[in-house]
Amino acid sequence: MSPGSVYNILRNPIYVGEIRGHDRTWPGRHAPIIERATWDAACALAAKRTRKGPSALGTDHFLAGILWDDLGRHMLLDVNWVEGQPYHFYVSSNAPWSQAEYRRAYRSRADRLDAVTLAALGAFLTDRSRLRAALRTHGLFGAELDRLAEYGGLAASRLANTPPSQLEGLIAALLVRIEVAPEALTLEVRPIELRRFLEWDGQGTFVGRQADWPTSNARYAIEVPVSVIAAERWPSFTVQPRDPAVEVTPDKQLKILIRNARAAQALFDAHRDLDLVGLAQRFGRSPGYFSRLIRLNYLAPDIVAAIADGTQPPGLNRKTLASAHIPLDWTVQRRMFGFPEPSRPVTPRNLFGRGMWPSRGDKDVVGGGTADGF
């Protein structure tokens, strides 16, 4: 018998001669088999030892109501207990269609996803270009648009200083929806509330006016290139060891370029008292070239590994890489320089019912063993 079954027995009023109703218990026609004092003591002990459920009611996590994955599954708050310590996660709902299609559940640490969301929203509020673009979707132009854009920095400060207990209502007002993908996070801003938040004087608690929401369908999407899905489910760092069977000579100039980028980063770390011009002068390069060297430190690890191994695409040379406007998104980098997306073999795991499902080739043996009877 499981602990849950014992727990339900201890709370069942039928043993003291009562029948459980919707919101109260009713006297039954049967005789009790347990004394009331014993049953009350057992219920009190069980309540004392009961852990909080995985809802957000006892936590400061605030995304469960507006969080979805990129497959359209609602992501709910879940909890794991490790040595008496709760660890909260947002987990994709186990929708029947996702089971039928053998889709894995996304899983993200709640505290980390909350932090990324707040940081991304704060960065958006201080980015005048994106803030203006979002307000234009609400029909704001000219002097009014310029006036509201001036409040972005103040709004970001108020967001950062909002008490945790008030974040759920604030985020639910500003954001219509958040979608989690393996390599990106999308925040859908509600411009009608964005305008109100920019004009808010910071007094009291900011509360969304839900009655006004149907009057505007304007939306603005904030794309954040970040992997927030738990690493054991979706590894974001995949670099294969060098293949000893492939004999190639690495491009010397490319390796020197990467080495110079590392040196520029080390100079930047060691001399935080210098501005860009001072750093470039000490390094012996122009400010523009020094900036491009710093940017090279954000290349995807598999691109750096390929350059070290000499297996980069034939068209990639020092001039091409040094003069490129390198995006921070690793996927865009790979497409830009002709690299394939990294992949690795995945070992099937029989964790049915926990969001991980067998491959289509395994469905004939689920629950029935193999053809040999094992």
Give the gist of this structure.
The chain has 374 residues and is an alpha+beta fold.
Layout of SSEs?
Layout: H1 3-11, E1 18-20, E2 25-27, H2 36-49, E3 67-69, E4 75-82, E5 85-92, H3 96-100, E6 107-109, H4 110-126, H5 128-136, H6 142-149, H7 152-160, H8 164-174, E7 175-181, E8 184-189, H9 191-199, E9 220-224, H10 252-270, H11 276-283, H12 287-296, H13 301-309, H14 318-323, H15 330-337
Parallel strand pairs: 3-7
Antiparallel strand pairs: 1-2, 4-5, 5-6, 7-8, 8-9
Task: Give a written overview of the molecule.
- With 374 residues, the protein is an alpha+beta fold.
- The protein folds into 3 domains: 3-49, no CATH class; 64-224, no CATH class; 252-337, no CATH class.
- It has helices at residues 3-11, 36-49, 96-100, 110-126, 128-136, 142-149, 152-160, 164-174, 191-199, 252-270, 276-283, 287-296, 301-309, 318-323, 330-337, and strands at 18-20, 25-27, 67-69, 75-82, 85-92, 107-109, 175-181, 184-189, 220-224.
- The strands form 3 sheets. The protein has a 4-stranded mixed sheet with strand order 3-7-8-9. A 3-stranded antiparallel sheet has the order 4-5-6.
